Amino acid sequence: MPGGADALVQELRGRVADERVLAAVRAVPRDRFVPEELFHEAWDNAPLPIGCGQTISQPLVVARMCELLELDGSERVLDVGTGSGYHAALLARLAAEVFSIELHAELSDRAARSLAAARASNVTLAVGDGSRGLPEHAPYDAINVAAAADRRVPGALIEQLAPGGRLVAPVEERGDQYLALLRERGGELHTLRLERVRFVPLVSGRR
User: Fold this and answer.
1) Which domain holds residue 144?
2) Active-site residue, selected from the candidate residues 57, 84, 108, 114
3) Helix, strand, or coil here: 114?
4) pTM for the predicted model, two decimal places
5) Which residues, at least 6 apart from 72, have a Cβ–Cβ distance to it below 8 Å?
6) Which helix (H) or strand (E) holds 22?
7) In this structure, is residue 144 part of a structural domain?
8) Chain centroid to CA 118
9) Which tens digits make up the pLDDT trace of 85-107?
10) Which of 16, 88, 174, 183 could form a disulfide with 100 if both were Cys (CB 3.0 to 4.6 A apart)?
11) Could you tell me which residues are beta bridge partners of residue 177?
């Protein structure tokens, strides 16, 4: 549905400045990542349900998060909360390697099929507790967290950030959520609080 992609990119332009990100939005077939019954809404700038109490995020928010990571194509990226796989598919066009972890095996299996259909061959999927990250593949030049952390980003994810790395995540405080951009510089972590967002909670797999 190329017309849908063009219309979506046009809507995002002006709020997303990174042309590489906009090109990725145009190139990744979002309709491959939504349930069949929602196919006609795939190119709307809106979140959609995908099962297991999860959603495919609003394209504007996904694009903004990708833009904030400032990817040049050489990076190793951790994607926390695979969900539909759409965010990982965009990251795959913007970075060298993507490792994506999802708590729900059903969603990870579905995402694998969608990513294959979108020809995103540089994405490695894992099932597990996203709050713990994937230390076996660390460090990461960039970390994307697609679920809201409670008050602070989990320390395990911060520990897996490479020197000079960037991490973007929604953080919830007192019922409000905002995007946080964390950047490692010279052994220090700098945090920038950005626009308000709405994500499902980051759920730990620990019992």
Assistant:
1) 2-196
2) 57
3) helix
4) 0.94
5) none
6) helix 19-27
7) yes
8) 16
9) 999 999 999 999 999 999 999 99
10) 88
11) 172
